[in-house]
Amino acid sequence: MREETIVGIFDMDTATMGPATKEFLSSSQREGRVVLTTYELPKSFILTVDDMVTLSQLSTSALAGRITAGAAREDDMPQ
Q1: How much is the pLDDT for 8?
Q2: Cα–Cα distances in Å, from 55 out to 9, 33, 72, 73?
Q3: SS3 48
Q4: I want to staple 40 with a disulfide (CB 3.0 to 4.6 A). Which of 17, 19, 57, 69 is the partner?
Q5: What percent of the chain clears pLDDT 70, i.e. is strictly above it?
Q6: What DSSP string describes 3-17?
Q7: 76 CB contacts (<8 Å, ≥6 apart)?
Q8: pTM attached to this predicted model
Q9: Low-confidence ranges of the chain (pLDDT < 70)
């Protein structure tokens, strides 16, 4: 997943407290726009520009760290 396609990374524990988020995730699932990366209990979800939702077992901080590390590696690549 490329950084520029990510709209947001959300914590499942806090983001799913609101009824609007619960409904968004439910409708995304019904419409087939949810991607499971694990069968473990998800800790976060990633929303992308194409309205896809990816459920992840990684925390939001772990995902953010991976994105930052990936961007740093891309900056080091020769043009």
Answers
A1: 95
A2: 10, 11, 24, 25
A3: strand
A4: 57
A5: 87
A6: GGGEEEEEEHHHHTT
A7: none
A8: 0.82
A9: 70-79
